UniProtKB/TrEMBL annotation:
InterPro entries reported for this sequence: Bac_surfAg_D15, BamA/TamA_POTRA, D15-like, POTRA
Key words, A-Z: Membrane, Signal, Transmembrane, Transmembrane beta strand
Organism of provenance: Mangrovicoccus algicola
Signal peptide segment: 1-24
UniProt name for this protein: BamA/TamA family outer membrane protein
Record-annotated membrane-spanning stretches: none
Keyword Glycosyltransferase applies: no
Record's subcellular location: Membrane
Length: 616
């Protein structure tokens, strides 16, 4: 097995001076010998990802010194790949234009390097012999579960499993309150005649500890009393890494801090407690943002916000939001309500750590004008509520307030007055909120509304379910699906505010169909929203390059006059193609869509949608 020559800084400086003009590398070949072809193919794939020479080729590096350095580093890279797969006696050769790279003098590097050939003979794959990691935490050991799948006698001795097993064993002790658990002596022996790898790792769990005091450093404008309340570290309770992680996340979640650092003391206190030092750095006190989306049918959407991050010195957040929709959109409405511009203005004040570190109290007020194709509704709401963070992924919210609206639609003009109690449960398991490849997102809303001054009482349910799955390494293909369900019970169509009825069509439901063009029924020839909704969307996303992706999609929507959709409900669908361009703020989305099923003739027109982030 070849070893990697070590070059000193002085030699590197000489080489840099001697290197002359060079042509870009033209080829890098990787050859695996002595193993079955399926194994060789898998090893080649991993070697290509690890190879510095391959990266030099892909990046079209022309400097011969840089190419030569990449070739030398591939001795180490290839050995690392082999160890990772359990081959502990590999022979690695790296040929630079036919010459072994390790035999080329650093002072006479060729002025041009055209081809590099990496040849690896893995040898026999080793198996684990002894896999001793001790002592394990008693309850974990009693359960009989392996530390890591594959880390057992007779299994392929992949090097990465050793570190994973050791870390898992330390984590078991930390979960049991042993905050200072660490690795002791390690002995790893490769028995080449037997092709076996024996592993002996000692653990030093240390004593079980309890959370101690927190010292606060930094120049935050948030009061120290409030910092401790938000942090919520349970002083005196048994150490838990999850509690520690949750405490830091509570501060991050406020949006008031640029940096949150929670460091444990080097040594515990004599009474078995462990102290911590909290360092926070504030974000700027104020922030604002703007956004825009456009579709040829719905028109322009402009939105913006302004917020204050620390209103009363307790990380309270005051936020103003404004949104204007359907600017320049088509006027497709009928009757009394032609389609116009929608306005939405709101303010929300939130206070973290209200009656507990995982609770956020809030108050809100909102005024809104919905000038939709089939109705016009002026709305005012006012209320208070509470958000509960059950975990990093799961939150619940409940609120109560007053809602007033004045409506013009197919039924005429009327007023609605309700005591509204909106609530929701959100479970976000996506790997990336703006451009997910894996995971799921569930958002379930329920809004009971008690009618006053003659208004009918009702309950609206609104469910949004999304799932993502990707496969393929270099050009991942992502399958994305969305299921939307909605229902209104307890009130008639005429007795339900139009905002709580369901329409379909447009960028958030069925692309390619006119904005809110599908309702549940008609009244005197005018479209009326439905009391039930079913939406299905599917996308196939693939990446052409690191920055550019393409998408094919199909959207389907049903709106029913009754509380649940059935075979008599109205339906339509749309199909389309799109492109995505990656940016630091999320992918730029450009979709074109056309009607497919439904009242509109299929492929009768093409609509354009532009925005930031995936459609769902």
């Amino acid at each position: 097995m070849q070893s990697v020559p070590k070059l000193g800084y002085a030699a590197g400086a000489v080489l840099a001076c001697l290197a002359g003009p060079a042509l870009a590398l033209s080829s890098v070949d990787i050859v695996v010998k002595g193993v079955p072809e399926d194994v060789a193919e898998e090893l080649r794939s991993q070697m290509e990802l690890a190879s510095a020479s391959k990266r030099a080729l892909d990046e079209e590096i022309a400097d011969s010194q840089d190419i030569f350095a990449a070739a030398l580093s591939d001795y180490r890279q290839m050995v690392s790949v082999m160890y990772g797969e359990g081959y502990y006696g590999p022979v690695v050769n790296v040929a630079v234009d036919g010459r072994e790279a390790s035999e080329i003098s650093p002072l006479s590097v060729p002025g041009e390097i055209g081809a590099i050939t990496i040849t690896v003979t893995p040898g026999e794959q080793f198996r684990f012999g002894r896999t001793e990691v001790a002592p394990r935490e008693p309850e974990a050991a009693a359960a009989g579960d392996p530390l890591v799948d594959g880390f057992a006698p007779g299994e392929p001795a992949r090097s990465g499993l050793i570190g994973s097993a050791a870390n898992a064993a330390v984590s078991e002790w930390r979960e049991a309150g042993h905050a200072k658990a660490e690795l002791g002596d390690e002995e790893i022996v490769a028995d080449h005649p037997e092709a076996a790898l024996d592993v002996d790792i000692e653990l030093r769990p240390g004593p079980q500890l309890r959370f101690g005091t927190v010292t606060i450093e930094g120049q935050s404008k948030v009061k120290q009393k409030r910092l401790r309340e938000i942090l919520g570290l349970p002083e005196g309770e048994i150490f838990s890494p999850q509690e520690l992680n949750d405490a830091a996340n509570r501060l991050r979640r406020t949006g008031a801090f640029r940096t949150v650092s929670l460091l444990e003391a080097e040594t515990p206190n004599p009474d078995g407690t462990l102290d911590y030092t909290l360092t926070v750095i504030d974000l700027p006190l104020h922030r604002f943002g703007v956004a825009a989306e456009y579709s040829t049918l719905d028109g322009m959407l402009l939105s913006g916000f302004w917020l204050h991050r620390n209103l009363f010195g307790g990380a309270e957040q005051l936020r103003f939001d404004a949104e204007i929709q359907n600017i320049g959109g088509e006027t497709v409405g009928v009757g009394t309500a032609g389609s116009g511009i929608d306005y939405d203005f709101g303010v929300r004040l939130s206070r973290p750590a209200f009656l507990g570190p995982d609770n956020v109290a809030f108050a809100y007020a909102n005024i809104k004008l919905d000038d939709e194709p089939d109705y016009k509704e002026k709305i005012a709401t006012l209320g208070i509520g509470l958000t509960r963070y059950f975990s990093d992924d799961l939150l619940g919210e409940i609120a109560g307030g007053y809602r007033y609206s004045y409506v013009e639609d197919a039924f005429g003009t009327r007023e609605f007055n309700h005591l509204a109690f909106p609530s929701r449960l959100e479970w976000d398991l996506r790997d990336d909120e703006g451009d997910p490849l894996y995971g799921a997102y569930l958002n379930y809303k329920a809004t009971p509304m008690y009618g006053v001054n003659g208004s009918e009482s009702l309950v609206q349910l609104d469910l949004d379910n999304r799932a993502y799955y990707s496969f393929g390494a270099e050009a991942p293909l992502t399958l994305a699906g969305r299921l939307q369900l909605g229902a209104v019970t307890g009130a008639s169509l005429e007795g339900t505010p139009p905002e709580f009825l369901f329409f379909s069509g447009g960028g958030d439901t069925v692309r390619g169909q006119e904005y809110e063009g599908l309702g549940g029924s008609t009244y005197d020839g005018d479209t009326v929203g439905g009391r039930s909704f079913l939406g299905l969307s599917g996308e196939i996303r693939t990446r052409v390059t690191d920055s550019l992706g393409v998408v094919a999609f199909y959207d389907y929507g049903m709106v029913g006059a009754d509380a649940w959709v059935d075979e008599d409900s109205n339906y339509h669908s749309g199909v389309g193609l799109g492109v995505r361009y990656a940016t630091p703020i999320g992918p730029i989305r450009v979709d074109i869509a056309t009607p497919y099923l439904g009242p509109e003739e299929e492929f009768s027109r093409v609509d354009l949608y532009i925005g930031v982030g995936q459609a769902f």
